[in-house]
Amino acid sequence: xxxxxxxxxxxxxxxxxxxxxxxxxxxxxIEYPKSEIADLSLPLPSxxxxxxxxxxxxxxxxKEMTKDKIxxxxxxxxxxxxxxxxxxxxxxxxxxKVEKPLRIVVEHTSANPIHPLHVGxxxxxxxxxxxxxxxxxxxxxxxxxxxVNDGGRQVALLIYxxxxxDYPEPPEGQKKDEWLGQIYAITNxxxxxxxxxxxxxSASEQEYKEKISKRDELIAVASELESRNxxxxxxxxNGVNSDKDPEAEISKIIQLYESGDSKTKQIVRKYVxxxxxxxxxxxxxxxxxxxxxxxxSDLLWNGDVGKILDLALESVAxxxxxxxxxxxxxxFLDDKVREELKIPKGFEIPPLVLMRSDxxxxxxxxxxxxxxxxxxxxxADEVINVIAEQQSVSQMQLRASLYLLGYPEIAKRxxxxxxxxxxxxxxxxxxxxxxxxSFDNIYDKVSEVVKTKIQEKKGVLENIKEIANAAIRYAIxxxxxxxxxxxxxxxxxxxxxxxxxxxxxxxxxAYNILNKSTDKLxxxxxxxxxxxxxxxxLLIMIAKFPEVFMSSADYLQPENLxxxxxxxxxxxxxxxxKERVIQEPDEKKRITRLYIVKGVETVLRNGxxxxxxxxxxxx
Length: 619
Known about the structure:
alpha/beta
C-alpha cells in the first residue's frame, strides 16, 4: 500500500469509530482541500448527519486532525510521510498494478485508406495509443487494433479514379497515401461537379442559386487540384465524362469487391495497402503502432456480415424504412436497458438501416460483425472504440442492435470513447476536396519550431523527434476528450510552460541535479524542519502520484495525469529557482532536498512514460 493510502486508512480507522460509520464509506468521501487549509479533508454531511463530535487525533502519518464546522481536516506528518515513501522507493514508484487484470481491446484511428491521415486523425491516434499505454502500465492485457474500411463507397470511388489512370504505380519519392489522396480528391470533385450540373436542369429558382454557388466553389477546388497535377486531372476528367453513369460504375466496384471477385480484390487490396504504408510511416513518428490491422472486407468474405444481416432480417424489430429494411431500436428497449447501454433517457434512436437498395450491406451492419470479431479474437472483457463525438448516435445504434440481436453482455461491455474535434488556427478541412492539414504537415511544422527553439537555447539537436512527439502528444492529451482542441503550433512547442517539451525540460533538470550529486542518500539524515513551502508541496504531490496514475488509467482520463505532471513541474521549477540543492552546505538539508528531487525525477519519468512521452536527460 502506498503512503497516502496508508494515511487515509489511518484517518478512516479513527473516524469510523468516532462517527460510527463504515470505514469504506469514509475512505470514499475523503477529499483534497486547498493545501493551506489541510492535506486531507472529510465533509461530514457526505457520511453522517452527526455534527457535534469531538475530534482530536495525531498518529504515525497524521500530525493533526481537527474539526472545522462541517469538515474534518488532516495535516500530514512530513517526516514520517517522507520515510514511508522513500524507505521502499524504486524506479517503478507509483505505477500500481491492478489486482484483477482485464483483457481489453482498444480500436483507434481506423482512418479510411483514401488519403493521408489529417489533424482530426491525430487526436484519435494519440488518445487511442495513450489509453493503450495507460492500461498496459496498470497491468491489463491490451490489444490495439486498426479497422481498415476498405469495403465502402469511398474506397470504390478511389479505385474508380485509379481505373481512369490505368492503375498506375506511385511515383518515386512521393508518399503513397499523399499520392492516393490527390487522385481521390480529383475524382470526387469531378463527379460532384457533374452531379450538380445535372441537377441544375430541373432545379427551382431558389435551388438553382444554391447549386450554382456550390458548383462555383467546386470549380475553384477543381482548378486548384488541376494545377497540382494537370495530367491526372485531365485523364480522370475525360474518363468520367466518357461514362454514362459514374455512380453505377462505382456501385459495380462495391458489388464486385463485396462478392469477392478475384481481380477486384487484387486491385483494391494493393492500393489500400499502399495507403496503410503511408499511415504507418506517419504514425511511427509518434511511436504509434498496432497489434492488428483488420480488413472490413474479410468480414464480408468470411460470411460474418451475412450472418448478422440474416439475424437482423429475422428480428422482431425488423421494419420497412425509406424503401429498404431496418431495425426499430426505439420500441424494444426499456429505460433500464437504455441506462445499461448508456443511451440518454428520452433520446430517440433512429432506426438502423440494414442494407442499400441494391442489396449491399451498410457499414453499421459490418460494425456489428466487427464488434463480435474483436471480442472473440482477443477473448476480450471490454472493447473500447475511440471514435469522434459525431459518431455518438451510430455508436448508440451499434450497442442497441447488439442487445436486440442477442448479445446483451457484449453491448454493455462496448465502450465508446468519444472526443471533440481539432482545429488549427480556424482552418477548415475536407479530405474529399483535397483540403486538409495532414498528420505529416503538423509533425514537420512542430519539428521546425522545436529545432529553432533548441538552437536559440544552444541545446542539443539529437532529440528533435522526441521533443516534437512530446509537444504534439501533450497538446492533445492535456485537453479533456469531450472538449475541442485548438492546435497552435508555436504554443505546443513552448519550452517555458504548459507543454510536453516543458515537462521534458523539467525532467532533464531533475535528472542532472541527481547525476551531479556525490551524496549517498540516507533516509536517517532527513531534516524535518526543511520540509516546508514548495518542498512540502512537492512531497505531498509525490505521495499523490500513485493515486493519480491509478485514477487516470481506471477512468480513462489521461488529461488528469498530464495536468498533475504539469503542476508538479511548475512547483519543482519554482522551488529550484529559489533554493540550492547540491550547493547547500548543510548535509541534512542537502540530503532532504535530494530526496525531493529524486521523487520528482521518478514521478516525471514514470508519468511521462505512461503517456507515451520519453523523458530526456539532455535538451
